[in-house]
Design brief:
CATH class of the largest domain in chain A: Alpha Beta
Radius of gyration of chain A: 25 Å
CATH topology of chain B: Histidine-containing Protein, Chain: A
Largest sheet of chain A: 8 strands, mixed
Structural class of chain A: alpha/beta
Distance between the termini of chain B: 22 Å
Helix content of chain A: 40-55%
CATH architecture of chain B: 2-Layer Sandwich
Shape of chain A: globular
Radius of gyration of chain B: 12 Å
Oligomer: heterodimer
Number of strands of chain B: 4
Low-confidence stretches of chain B: none
Helix content of chain B: 25-40%
Mean pLDDT of chain B: 85
CATH architecture of the largest domain in chain A: Alpha-Beta Barrel
CATH class of chain B: Alpha Beta
Number of strands of chain A: 16
Amino acid sequence: MTTAGGRAAAGAATAGGALAGRAAAPGHVAGPLVRLAERAAPRRRAGSPAQEAAALGQATALALTDLAALAAATEGDAADILEFQIALLEDDALTGPAFAAIAAGHPADRAWGEAIGALVRDYEATEDDYFRARAADLKDLAERVAAAIAGETAAAAALPANAILVARDLAPSRFLATDWTGRGIALADGSPTSHVAMLARARGVPMVVGLGPIDAASGTRALLDGDAGTLALAPDAAGEADFAARAAASARDAAEAAAGAAVAAASADGVPVQVMINVADPAELATLDPAICDGIGLVRTEFLFHGRAGLPDEDEQAAVYAGILAWAAGRPVVVRTLDAGGDKPIAGLTREGETNPFLGLRGVRLSLARPEVFAVQLRALLRAAPAGDLRVMIPMVSVPAEMARVRALVAEAAAALAARGVAHRLPPVGMMVEVPAAAIALDRFDTDFVSIGSNDLTQYVMAAGRDEPSVAGLADPADPAVLRLVRMTVEAAAAKAVPVSLCGDAGGDPRLVPLLLATGLRSLSMAPTAVGRVKRTIAGLVLGHDPAPAGAAAPAGAEDPR
Amino acid sequence: MTTTATATALLTHDVGLHARPSVKLTKLAKTFASHIELATVDGGPWIDAKSIVKVMAAKAPKDTVLHFRAEGDDADAAVRALVELVERDFPDGAEERP
């Protein structure tokens, strides 16, 4: 999402004294600023051995308290894993060497890291799958205590009502651990296309990024405008009145759009457009009416790995997928297999220390490198498939061999389920087009459907990182180069007679929707909060009666992603 | 009065002495004052039955004969309780003493 007006002014003060940044998620919040404790400098200053021993003692005590609270709120396997972490932390055989290293002059963080690192390596080195999986639990524990040593609390502190959280940047895990009802986010850095900005839009949490240094204490009253991308500090009465008027107008606008959300989308001249929603967490569905959409164009499955210790098992995943299919009540549901890596690291799964994670082991590359994790997800998806119109989407496909390998693994998963006598069905398997190589040579791929991931496609085509504010202007999905690739993808999909959709943030941006539909796209998937506005935008467009791109006859049903 | 007690039990748990059974075993062991050790081979090496790190490190698979030995005032009760835990296949709640 680009903000033409905000781009040049980012980080500057406006005439009215407000800080100008980039709008990342719409909405308005008036309330007190709350500064998120900045992460202590990467290298903390070590104290005397006695102070370091006290630091480790306090950190393990804090971690134990947090784990006990988590365990009390958890059941089944997940609770067992937490109990295991608690038992480890209470064991002198683990903490003893760390305290001994501190007595010998090592700082607490290093002593802890080395003590548990030895255990992690021991678990990772075993032949036994079960023990290797426990290494992830140990790493989770290692990070929890390390964060406590660094002075961070693992649990998000409760925010006051109408709070505006101020931070340099915000980790997705921290976002997901916080109740944002009525609250907003103001970031000094960050980008509107980051993972956390996407989550904020999906959850309807007003958010402004790229504000530059925010020089105000916690408790300062502030006005956050997620539509204009501004933050006003200590406003005067006129500023308050102006803000209240803008907030009311925006809320009215959003309510009108929401009222129209349940009507199927069509252009002014009657061309239907399929409007689907993106789901980052099934919990979002509880408050949504399935009638607002034609299906779910993207279910992210990274949520399965958030806020938990250990990897979710097949039963648990199958139940979650079946629940989503039940909500959709027969509408198509496109589930994307785990898309970890890049800006979405998962402890114990993704690799650390890649010089460029966006060009590294992520998406399907990681799944194929960790087939034991991937196979669990595939079996769970096949088991859920009979419950509705499930389609399985593979992220970050670059070469046809990856799809061939995925299909072989899907066949293996089906055979394994058949051998166990478990009911299942083979769903269509499609690919995301987000790597330029896939967009340029789509005809070479064996895929049942195509979904364009505009966020990554844009960053890879423009060579401008999603999380790099200084090049946010370049990361423009409306750039002709990106739009040409979108059109090529639509044409190539039509030639293959497979359905094509788009599920990046561009699909939910009313300013970009006309450009995307002009490429021949007739199916968009977006954050649920964008549905009303996008449908209104579509209703104002004249698309003409030939939805097919020039030169490619659309096969019957090409607009149906089946 | 300090006594010494020993006993053996056959590990029938499907996945062997993994996280969940190990947590239960060490929790139960810690409820006794005695020094308690276990071994996966007769004669040792003996490991501290109250340490999850060491119990897990034994990586005892299904069908291992576990040897327990305890020394202390409640050594007999400790060994009896641990043998029962293993023989009853680590039921829920068994790590707490009645």
